[in-house]
Specification:
The chain has helices spanning 3-14, 84-88, 182-189, 299-314, 363-366, 398-401, and strands spanning 27-33, 40-46, 51-58, 65-67, 77-78, 94-95, 109-110, 115-116, 121-122, 126-137, 142-156, 171-174, 195-199, 208-212, 219-220, 224-225, 231-236, 255-257, 261-264, 267-268, 286-288, 295-298, 320-321, 330-332, 338-339, 342-343, 348-351, 358-361, 367-371, 377-381, 383-387, 394-396, 404-409, 414-420. With 437 residues, it is mainly β. 11% of the residues lie in helices and 34% in strands. A hairpin with a 2-residue loop joins strand 19 and strand 20 (267-268). A six-stranded mixed beta barrel has the order 2-3-12-4-11-10. Strands 20-19-27-28 form a four-stranded antiparallel sheet. It has a four-stranded antiparallel sheet with strand order 23-24-30-29.
């Protein structure tokens, strides 16, 4: 059994749930990386009785969904078509079903279409209300369970909805800027601020953590509060969503930030500034994605960026060697020194709304260790060409987010970012999941 599963089993068996929680209760979920797919997986407790459930973490999705094959719960309810709740959901139709009644089959029920972000496909689904629980926290440890008895999600029995997802995954956890995302519903249920903080682990075995309903503290061993290290930049709204199913007049639920330039070793990269602005059709700009494993750059940006990186690396006596797919720029590991923040390579800055506000990417996040067919040991630049006609010019991917804490504050419409926590003497795997109760 994985450490992730053991943690959830521990929460379920040994942390008592509470009938009443204090107002503005903060909570958390562990998040791990599946080694074969590089997908980020969160674990929640769902249904009645509560059952550990693994879900794909999607930073830009609008609502949670589950594959409802063999769905068993004593408390689930469908959402009627004529209800005020259905009117507030992104539902396009009222569904009827002619099979045996069940979670994924009911008449006059609010339809809620789940989307698979990997295959870019949608399926028919039904809006469901059921129980969800997750550990509360004081920022140092998990506490007793907090129960949300009226959690809204989509339930689908489509045969293809899980295609491409990690084998243990049963659905999707949404962190998007929708009123029915996981953080939004947690905020409402626990009367907590609409804020969440994401700290993805770079460890192949130990999980990271997602905090909900708190602006800190975020303590990581040895007693380091990362909330004190955050720099802030505004979150931007893309007016046009990019979902498979088009919802007229609805903006994107993805998180965009105002990256105005790139720097390598402090030197600006020559690029076309217009690419970094979202136009009236929703094209351009920079977004953050847990679905994209490695940051992608529109072709002209990628070309200029890699050229600048190679030039700066040459000044460090690093010579490009044979590339290993999917990467195009690699260096022999024997030539690259090791530092506290990973491989000793040129730094990369994502410059935000002001020249002195930038997300610095060190070697641990810019480079990927690879082994070639002939057992070559190399470090490769972990950025990919997103194409000449990329919808979004820069997509900040999961690898660049690992061991960085990102705080998404929907009330203040701002992103807080720490840059690498390695330089502060900790990692995102250093949250203490030992219970405080």
């Amino acid at each position: 059994m994985s450490l992730h599963s053991l943690l959830l089993l521990f929460f379920l068996l040994f942390i008592p749930s509470a009938a009443l929680l204090p107002l503005q209760t903060a909570s958390l979920t562990p998040v791990s990386r599946d080694p074969s797919t590089l997908q980020y997986i969160v674990s929640l407790l769902q249904k009645t009785p509560l059952k550990p459930t693994k879900l794909l973490l999607d930073l830009g999705a609008s609502f949670n969904w589950l594959d409802c094959h063999n769905f068993v719960s004593s408390t689930y309810q469908h959402v009627p078509c004529n209800s005020s709740l259905c009117s507030s959901l992104p539902s396009l139709s009222c569904s009827n079903c002619y099979n045996a009644p069940g979670p994924a089959c009911a008449n006059q029920t609010c339809a809620l279409f789940p989307e698979n972000p990997l295959t870019r496909t949608a399926a028919i689904g039904y809006a469901i209300i059921d129980s969800l629980a997750l550990p509360t926290t004081d920022g140092r440890n998990p506490g007793r369970l907090g129960l949300i008895s009226q959690f809204v999600f989509s339930c689908s029995s489509s045969q293809s909805i899980l295609k491409g997802l990690a084998n243990t995954v049963a659905g999707l956890a949404s962190l998007g800027r929708s009123n029915f995302s996981l953080p939004a519903q947690i905020s409402t249920a626990f009367s907590a601020p609409y804020v969440f903080a994401l700290c993805l682990s770079g460890s192949p075995s130990a999980p990271g953590v997602v905090f909900y309903g708190t602006r800190g503290p975020y303590f990581f061993l040895p007693e380091i509060d990362i909330s004190k290290s955050l720099i802030y930049t505004p979150l931007l709204l893309n007016p046009i969503g990019s979902t498979v199913i088009t919802y007229h007049g609805r903006p994107s639920d993805e998180y965009f930030v105002n990256v105005t330039s790139l720097r390598v070793n402090g030197k600006p990269v020559e690029l076309t500034p217009a690419l970094l602005t979202v136009d009236q059709n929703g094209i351009g700009g920079t977004k953050i994605s847990t679905i994209t494993p490695y940051t992608t750059l529109q072709t002209s940006i990628y070309t200029a960026f890699t050229e600048a990186f190679v030039n700066e690396a040459a000044a460090l006596n690093l010579t490009v060697t044979n590339a290993i797919k999917p990467f195009n720029v690699c260096y022999s590991a024997d030539d690259v020194v090791s530092t506290r923040a990973g491989p000793g390579v040129p730094t990369v800055d994502l410059v935000m709304h002001s020249e002195d506000v930038f997300w610095r990417i060190f070697g641990s996040n810019s480079m990927v260790r690879m082994a070639g067919a002939n057992e070559e040991d190399v470090w490769c630049l972990g950025f990919l060409d997103g194409g000449a006609n990329a919808r979004t010019a820069i997509v900040i991917g999961g690898h660049q987010m690992e061991d960085n804490l990102l705080e998404f504050d929907m009330e203040s419409q701002r992103l807080g970012f720490s840059s690498s926590v390695l330089v502060r003497g900790t990692t995102c795997a250093n949250f203490n999941f030992t219970s405080s109760v």
